[in-house]
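During the reporting period the student researcher (J.K.) took over the structure-prediction task from the postdoctoral fellow and processed the backlog of single-chain submissions. One of the processed entries is reproduced below for the supervisory committee.
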Amino acid sequence: MSTLRIYEESGGPPRSEYTDFASIASALKHIGVQFERWEAAHALEPDASQETVIAAYQASVDRLMDDYGFQSVDVVSLTPDHPKRQALRDQFLQEHIHDDFEVRFFVDGSGLFYIRAGGKVYATLCERGDLISVPANTTHWFDMGERPRFKCIRLFTTTDGWVAKFTGDPIAERFPRMDE
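J.K. obtained the following structure tokens:
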């Protein structure tokens, strides 16, 4: 089940928690984040290739590319046996921004996005069927858990994709991780 927990930027227990789609989407809309629920209806093998995943959702990918002028698309996928999972988790847990907005459609599994805005931290657990779009230059980080299992389609407005610019702020250390 998708959830949203809103914390004060200083840490502590969550001030609000939502589990229904409409409340999550409404709360995120206030900070410019789009949260949509799509139907992830295509069954994919755990080792499905990037081409297979994109082909399964080609109509939706094409619509997003037309709507937003995306230039490229890829698939990010991690499983608990990935040899670099801890290094990747450590990297994603660092607060960062991108010059481009970040769009992810979870076709399988789950991951936890933390978005810092207006003195608060919005921790959004995204699951299969969720699409989240984080605006450009919005501070955020991502936790995939100790045993990651997710497959996401990502779209970019440049052919090179986006590059993370790390803030150096250790804020992520003040908030519960995905497994807590």
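The committee noted the following: Helices lie at 21-29, 50-56, 58-68, 85-92.
J.K. will present the remaining backlog at the next meeting.
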